[in-house]
Structures are given as structure tokens and as C-alpha cells.
Amino acid sequence: MKLLLIEDEIELAKSIQNYLNKNDFVCEWVDNILLAMDKISNYSYDCILLDLMLPDGNGFNLLKTLKKANKKEGVIIISAKETLQTRIDGFNLGADDYLIKPFHLSELLVRIQALIRRKQFDGNNKVIFNEIEINTLSKEVKINNLKIEITKKEIDLLLFLIGNKNQVLSKAAIAEHLSGDMADMLDNHDFVYAHIKNLKKKIKDAGAKNYIQTVYGLGYKWQNE
Known about the structure:
single chain, 5-stranded parallel beta sheet, 225 residues, 4-stranded antiparallel beta sheet, 2 domains, Arc Repressor Mutant, subunit A, Rossmann fold
């Protein structure tokens, strides 16, 4: 899962980024609205963590821009401003959650996980697609009720494909999801093919149907056979 952190407190931002990366997220970080808008214009995210008091403006302005552009990213405001009116304004502008500083990183993690579940999987910890069952908390995958050995990257890819079922996902989109903006620095996206190939083999060997379809020249799609 890919996140964007917009925070100008350097030490706090580094601690959040390191913590989330260690918990299997790809967390990118910018410290102002201008850089944030560039990121959001060029990439898609599962969740945006937004501070309100930024050096080049108020985070509410970014929320307004997201709403006008009809962007679908979930937004959690992280701010030291704790007035009732500020929280109301944030929710009215489209924020999904509001966390007041200081906070425990473990609470932030739980809120991110809950938001992603609401946005993509109807609030469920378990994602079930026919004979495939994924526990998003324990990072376990079962096929026909039998646990399979699978890497964290492959689980992330599996959830990304199922969460966008029946949609063609380009190699570039999958690369961004798995590696963040580091994908732009790679000469090619061959690692996407390798992950797709490994994932297809593992679920097929476990008795699942072939849901991952190659759309030649475009990318990959998850659909019923």
C-alpha cells in the first residue's frame, strides 16, 4: 500500500515514514503543499497523511483542490490544531479522519489500516474472492482454506489487483504501487513481470483459478475466468 506524508516537522516526519515503511507500507514524504500537489498530480495513493500548518499555506487548501479534482485518496489530517471547528472544517472538506498531535505511531497505523479497509474492502479485515482469502492484518493468504507461503510484496500485489478487479493496470501503475516514486528511477519494470509470474504460479499451484489476465500491450487485469 502506498502513502503520501505531507509534514514539515522533520523529526516527526522521519519517525512516521520509518515506522510505516517497517510495517509494509511504501511511505513517501514531502514538506510543503507545492511538492504535495506535484506528487498527487502524477501519482495515486491509498492514503494521504496531511498536516494543516505548512510553510507555503494551509492544508485545507490542498483538501479543496483534491475535492475539486475528484481524487479518491483517503485523507487523514494530522495536526496540533484541536478545536472543534477545525475538525468540522476538515471533515466538511473531505477528510476521512483527524488525528491530533502528539499521537502514538501505533494508533496512526491502526487508523490507516481502518481507512484503507473502508475505502477498498468494505471495512473487512478479510478479503475474500471465491476460493481465495486474505487476512489484511496477519498478512496470511489461504486458498481453499489452506495457508500458502507468499511474500509481503506478493500480498500487496494481490490486494492491489483484487481491489481494482476488472480494471486494466499498467506495469507502471503496479510498479508505482509496489515501489513508490522509486519506480521512476528504474530502467525498466521487469520486476513487475517477475512478481506477477510468481503470484500466478503460487495461486495456481494451490488450486485457485487463473484470475490474473495479461492484456497485451497494456498490462494486467484481475477477473473471473
